[in-house]
Amino acid sequence: MRVETTIPGKSMMQDPRSAASGRKKNSPSSKSGNALSSSPAFQQYQSAVQLVQQGKYDKALVAFEKLVPAAPAEIVERARMYISTCQRQLERTNLAFQTPEERYDYAISQLNQGYFEEAREQLNEVVADDPHADYAFYGLAVLDSITGHPQDCLDNLSRAIELNPKNRLQARSDNDFQSMVDDPRFTELLYPEIP
N or C terminus of the chain: which is more exposed, having fewer CB within 10 Å? Predict the structure, then answer.
């Protein structure tokens, strides 16, 4: 098959494969991508990301905040996400708990907001500071239930009940253990057979 290409004043016959390959593809996204990657805003964005990767959250936060007002839309949303990340990391470094209970309260607030890894880290710190903190084991059991770790849930709940038998009663009516209700091991833990 041959394609006839007309140019004003000329007529040309051309093989379609060579015609297609002869066309230059100029998509708008490739132009804007090249322009974006060479823009000063993009270079500032990359520098700020490197600061985050180096753990220099305070400097990165300042860089991202300066960038947002003048940055192109492609960068703004990512910069805002990094601002949030930097703020969370800076809050973590400023945490100072007077008691294990304060750390526990903070961990539960993180759990309730969906920051499960932060909650786990804080609850593990409570357990490390006080291995008899039944409430921290109970909190870990709730976290494990919510995040789909049934064996860890059972282990932590068992330890919480061992340290304080009242945790058994609490767990029976705690909706946070919904994912465990159908597990016979969970039922056995909460309702042991009395010999």
Answer: C
Residue that has been written with the tokens 């016979």 in this structure: 184
The whole-model pTM stands at 0.56
Classified as helix, coil or strand, 71 is coil
Structural contact between residues 141 and 160, judged by C-beta atoms closer than 8 angstroms: yes
Give CATH superfamily name and number for 100-190.
Answer: Tetratricopeptide repeat domain (1.25.40.10)
Cα 124 to Cα 184: distance, rounded to the nearest angstrom: 27
Interval 109-158: pLDDT, tens: 999 999 999 899 999 999 999 999 999 999 999 999 999 999 999 999 99
What is the three-class DSSP state of 5?
Answer: strand
Nearest to 176 by CA among 194, 160, 193, 165: 160
